[in-house]
Amino acid sequence: VNLVPSANPLTESSFEEVVLGTGPVAKEGSSVLFHFYGSPVTNQDSLKWDTRGEDPLEIAIGENRFHSGIEDGLIGMSPGGIRRLEIPANEEDGNPDEVIYVQLVDI
User: For an engineered disulfide with 33, which of 53, 55, 79, 105 has Cβ 3.0 to 4.6 Å away?
Assistant: First the structure.
């Protein structure tokens, strides 16, 4: 798991495919099951968040009930896929720059 950002501070959201999934593609309005793990950029030595080993989280993409950067990062993924997200700080929700991996379990 690479927690080092491509820039510091981050100025825009970006993602890269780590593992390509197969099957249907998540889109706005899709109900998805997923795991995420990562850390704020200020803590590159260890994971602060890790939902692997727990039941997957379930959301409907676009209902804005979860971290917007993660919701946006799930769009276009297929089950089994893993994507590395770089999400810049957001003053509205108080989140710092973050590097987060999302693993789509099912749609």
Answer: 105
